[in-house]
Amino acid sequence: MSLAIAFFFIVMITGVLLLEGCAAGQTPDFSAGSPPPTSASSGNDTALSEPNPAMPGDAGSDSIDADDTANDEDPGAAKLLYQGHGSFRITTGEGKVIYVDPYAGEGYDLSADLILITHQHSDHNKIDLITSKNPGCEIITEKNALVGEIHQVFEFGYVVVEAVEAYNKNHNPYECVGYILTFTDGVQLYASGDTSTTTQMETFSTRNLDYALLCCDGTYNMDVKEASECAALIGARHSIPYHIEPGQLFNRERAEQFEAEGRIIVAAGEEIILAGQ
Ligand SMILES: [Zn+2]
Q: Is residue 111 classed as helix, strand or coil in its secondary structure?
């Protein structure tokens, strides 16, 4: 007798739970304003296809949320347009536009958010080529990058800019800088500016830089051989020769003489994606 009563209650409770399960499955359809299911089968299909909200550790819905969040937060990789000589333009994943040493080539048509100048030689500081600047556009030159002999760090939301040493017999260490840029996806890029080997370079090897742009003209700066030695010293994942020959946008023959593990040769006018590791 008692077993029959217990069985009756189990059947009743199971029925109620099943009804609640269907109702829960249908609720989003109603609240979303879509028409209610027109048959029991469509209602059941909806309920079955949806993850059970009572299931602990529901990997399905969690992973979808995580993916969506990652996509929202991932701005994408920055792109570098090598304009020639010592000039390049970076568009960050967020769409911010950074010019470094405007002088050579084409591609000054995008509105600037940040302009970096390494020093005041006439082949590095043609800010007027950039015809449009976005509101709040910042200009950093060696004058504010090197204050009281201290190399400065500038944090913007989309990039961190660190001034670093640059010098040789033609370039005064107190009037010239290089820059290390760190983007929001963690990619780090070093642009040497005009320099020969600096004492700071070997400290860069501990930073696992992703890209190193190294000048190598051999007239005003170190030559290709020394630049190749600097590439080995710095140990960036990719090294790129630039500022290759005085008065020239680019010189492929000399660029090919530059030796480095993970070398990338970028001709004037070419654009590369600054991929992370
Ligand atoms: Zn120069």
A: coil
Closest by CA to 175, choosing from 222, 217, 226, 121, is: 121
- Report the alpha-carbon distance of residue 248 to residue 246 in Å, rounded: 6
Q: What is the pTM of this model?
A: 0.74
pLDDT value for 234: 98
Cα-to-centroid distance, 265 and ligand 1 (Å): 19
Residue 12 has phi, psi (to 5 degrees) of -65, -45
CATH 3.60.15.10 residue spans of the chain? 78-274
CA 85 to ligand 1 centroid distance, Å: 8
Sorting pLDDT into bands at 50, 70 and 90, what band is 75? confident
Class of the CATH domain delimited by 78-274 = alpha beta
φ/ψ of 273, rounded to 5, equals: -90, 130
Gap from CA of 222 to ligand 1 centroid (Å): 11
